[in-house]
Design brief:
Elements: E1 3-8, H1 13-24, E2 27-33, E3 48-50, H2 56-66, E4 70-73, H3 80-85, H4 87-107, E5 112-118, H5 141-160, E6 163-169, E7 171-173, H6 191-199, E8 206-209, E9 221-222, E10 224-226, H7 227-244, E11 248-252, E12 258-259, H8 260-271, E13 277-280, H9 295-301, H10 310-324
Parallel strand pairs: 1-2, 1-4, 2-3, 4-5, 5-6, 6-11, 7-10, 8-13
Antiparallel strand pairs: 9-12
Bound molecules: nicotinamide-adenine-dinucleotide.
Amino acid sequence: MKKAVFVTGGAGYIGSHNCKELFKNGFLPITFDNLSESTKESVKWGPLIEGDINDSDKLNFYLNKYKPIALMHFAANALVGESFIAPNKYYKNNVAGTINVLDAMLNNNVKNLIFSSSCATYGNPIFTPITENHPQNPISIYGQTKFFVEQILKDYKRAYNLNYASLRYFNAAGADLDSEIGENRKIETHLIPLAIETALKFNDKLDVYGKNFNTKDGSAIRDYVHVSDIAIAHKKALESILENNDCISLNLGSSKGFSVLEVLKEIENELNTKININFTDKREGDPPILFADCMLAKKVLDWEPKLSDLKTIIKSAVRWHKIKKR
Ligand SMILES: NC(=O)c1ccc[n+]([C@@H]2O[C@H](COP(=O)([O-])OP(=O)(O)OC[C@H]3O[C@@H](n4cnc5c(N)ncnc54)[C@H](O)[C@@H]3O)[C@@H](O)[C@H]2O)c1
């Protein structure tokens, strides 16, 4: 029988790519998702339980039913801007919701967790590339919620021996190379899908936040890592914590920084069109430059991104968006 892995937020963008990777590697992913941001169509590799991580009874019932060897926790709200306007939503879902998940895990003797953390826990970098021992001083409430959970995990390890991997993703991007899934949120706010939709003329303009950052072309520099590379890192992190009965905190990025304008140029080249750009003010909580040092993930997991060059990211995302819109 396949070993079950419980996946909160498994219908979402990164969660669904992880479900595919788990299935490919002989695990049965059990998606637990309230579909607040996503749809059922991306749940293709195991059962879907429609449920909310704030519902302890439901979590306990299904953890007891499936007896997973581990839990991957993707479910969260993840919009930096919204987190300033609705901190209660973010603290409830991302912090209280996560405590609920952890307690349900302990009730059901599930002792291995992979947690979706974020480069947003670092705040404004004092050096780049950012290593895991860079100080964590989040500058958004979203980043703060991820940082709090990382602290909670240390305490749960100490007190209850809950093993965890905190994986700090930089900007997840691209789509499954078979185009079975991709970025498909109910309300999209991320640069690459919005830019592709604008280039394909589904939107008339693309808002770009800030053109006066202290960078080579004035737009913000980010590290884009292919979502399928992230999924492979999760599989390796799962094997690592199962084998070593221990905890790890790792950056997942491409170790390269591209400016927003460079990303848009790549999309324009791929689609042979111009994107109608509307520059607006910088957003609160947006650092000018973020890119990762991923040597630790290489050392600990023998993980290196293979699909995270900008061309592959954009090509795979464009292919997915063309199929999705048909
Ligand atoms: N996308 C990125 O670049 C990025 C970067 C760093 C960290 N992360 C983190 O990775 C995780 C996944 O991000 P994503 O981009 O796939 O987002 P997403 O919005 O596509 O997926 C999140 C999923 O969680 C579900 N969900 C939200 N609240 C829930 C709740 N209370 N109960 C059950 N399900 C709930 C949503 O319906 C959705 O399917 C998040 O924790 C996010 O903070 C994402």
